[in-house]
Protein: DUF4258 domain-containing protein
Organism: Microcystis aeruginosa Ma_MB_F_20061100_S20D
Amino acid sequence: MSENRHMKTIRWSQEKNRQLQAERGLKFEMVLAAIERGDVLDDIVHPNFTRYPHQRIMVVRIGEYAFLVPYVDSSSELFLKTIIPSRKATKKYLGDKNNHD
């Protein structure tokens, strides 16, 4: 847990964090570090707003790749839901130099 640039506490599920680390080699602490470095590339409304009306998606740079981080924004905190690697966001925000396909 930490405080971001808007002075909101950033939280996440420890169980989800362990799952992400085991399955994808990612953890929410990496997202927090990206936020603190200023590596937030975008912040967008969730594309499925009807189903997830209280969620937004933060696009963060970790290394040379862009990740989508859905989160719930309340008056006092941001609750991070998951971390999704995104080839499309990497190309859009970081350019073709990162596309090795």
Summary: The CA atoms of residues 43 and 58 lie 4 Å apart.
